[in-house]
Specification:
The complex is a heterodimer. Chain A has no helices and eleven strands. Chain A is mainly β. In chain A, strand 4 (31-38) and strand 5 form a beta hairpin. Chain A starts with a strand and ends with a strand. Chain B is 0% helix and 54% strand. Chain B is built from no helices and eleven strands. In chain B, the strands form two sheets. In chain B, strands 2, 4, 5, 9, 10 and 11 form a six-stranded mixed beta sheet that branches. In chain B, strands 1-3-8-7-6 form a five-stranded antiparallel beta sheet, with no helix packed on it. The radius of gyration of chain B is 14 Å and the shape is globular. Classes of the chains: A mainly beta, B mainly beta. The A-B interface holds A 4, 9, 31, 33, 40-43, 45, 48, 50, 56, 58, 90, 92, 97-99, 101-107, 109 and B 9, 32, 34, 36, 41-46, 49, 51-52, 90, 94-96, 98-103, 105-108.
Chain lengths: 113, 115
């Protein structure tokens, strides 16, 4: 079974802090994704990566950056956290082509005070 | 561009009743379609996927979905609801416009099951 592990289930940070969300997958998947999930809005793609050191912007990249130095790890960075970034963040990975399913971690519920 | 519409943000059924969650998609090419389930405070779990083989797709936990090209639909059904089916369900289509086939999700349908 694919295992996608997000480093924290719950996180509380202050406005202006730099925040790191970590995601690790154990199945050697090429593709990794970061989403945020808000009530009534569903899942929105922030960034994705299709290879080490490669990244592409999703639908809502503003205020975020990402890092993928190793194939198994994909980090989401909030450069200067703001209250409107309070949300549930979900990481996913996928092997190969687009007909393959994405596999999700359990999510990080992030609160910015 | 692809899109997904889930009709009904909340659906309530009685235990033992039929579950029907509706999903319509738009796509200019044959789509790859997915249903995911999310239990409270958890990530998304794949229920089933359609990848242009059989139009009736069987998934986990007794769920199935039928791909109907003429109706651009991929509705999720289960003959008899259990209390443990209470969760949020997301339909998704694989994006053909981007370079890597990202998923485009519907806004979700929250299923409640009454005893």
């Amino acid at each position: 079974d694919v295992k996608v592990t997000q480093s924290s289930r719950y996180l509380v940070k202050r406005t202006g802090e730099k925040v790191f969300l970590e995601c690790v997958q154990d199945m050697d998947h090429e593709n990794m994704f970061w989403y945020r999930q808000d009530p009534g809005l569903g899942l929105r793609l922030i960034y994705f990566s299709y290879d080490v050191k490669m990244k592409e912007k999703g639908d809502i990249p503003e205020g975020y950056s990402v890092s993928r130095e190793k194939k198994e790890r994909f980090s989401l960075i909030l450069e200067s956290a703001s209250t409107n970034q309070t949300s549930m963040y979900l990481c996913a990975s996928r092997r190969g082509q687009r007909y393959q399913p994405q596999h999700f971690g359990d999510g990080t519920r992030l609160s910015i005070l | 561009a692809q899109s997904v519409t889930q009709l009904g943000s909340h659906v309530s059924v009685s235990e033992g009743a039929l579950v029907l969650l509706r999903c319509n998609y738009s796509s200019s090419v044959p789509p790859y379609l997915f249903w995911y389930v999310q239990y409270p405070n958890q990530g998304l779990q794949l229920l089933l996927k359609y990848t242009s083989a059989a139009t009736l797709v069987k998934g986990i936990n007794g769920f199935e979905a039928e791909f109907k090209k003429s109706e651009t639909s991929f509705h999720l059904t289960k003959p008899s609801a259990h209390m443990r089916d209470a969760a949020e369900y997301f339909c998704a289509v694989s994006d053909t416009g981007g370079s890597q086939g990202n998923l485009i999700f519907g806004k979700g349908t929250k299923l409640s099951v009454k005893p």
